[in-house]
Design goal:
The protein has 171 residues and is α+β, with helices and mostly antiparallel strands. The chain has 3 helices and 12 strands.
Length: 171
């Protein structure tokens, strides 16, 4: 129906379990890769950014679409460098979420590391107002106050908070 480099909008004829049919719009999306680092102080590297669609500000992880032929883990590391100026150490897969699976087939793959090296000012600094190390201990309150809004960031940061609070680092 409509196509861009990031998504395709389709209209599908859906047959329900009872045999009825309905038209349903769906969005086909390329995979998204996200990354953060949790340092020894229990802080996660996050971006404070504005989302014009919802006209809201919030903390997010570095993220972007996976380029054709690119490994998902490599895309996560690339996005973190481009958006934060920090190169993550060895990445571990944390989780994969489908933030809007009633409307879109997009999968968001979240990675994290325990080390990062500052390599310079972020190439894509226009994507966020600032980049900060945010204590994982503050994540539940930030979610409650609406300062972490995106589904992928909420899921990832609450999971990292749980892992850090329980002393577990296995993803």
């Amino acid at each position: 129906m409509d196509r861009s480099p990031w998504l395709t909008l389709n209209l599908a004829d859906v047959e329900l379990p009872d045999g009825r049919h309905l038209d349903h719009y769906l969005i086909r999306q390329r995979p998204v890769a996200l990354a953060t680092t949790v340092n020894e102080a229990g802080e996660a590297l996050l971006l404070w950014r504005h989302r014009f669609i919802t006209d809201s500000w919030g903390w997010e992880l570095a993220a972007g679409v996976v380029e054709h032929g690119e490994a998902i883990e490599a895309a996560a590391a690339r996005e973190m460098v481009e958006e934060t100026g920090w190169r993550p150490g060895p990445l571990k897969h944390l989780l994969t979420v489908e933030p809007s699976n009633g409307l879109a087939d997009g999968r968001h793959h979240v990675y994290w590391s325990t080390t990062a090296e500052y390599v310079g000012h972020p190439e894509d600094d226009f994507e966020s107002e600032r980049r900060e190390w945010v204590p994982l201990a503050s994540v539940p309150a930030l979610v409650e106050r609406g300062e972490i809004r995106s589904a992928n960031a909420v899921a990832a940061l609450l999971m990292l908070h749980h892992m850090h609070g329980s002393g577990t680092e296995e993803a």
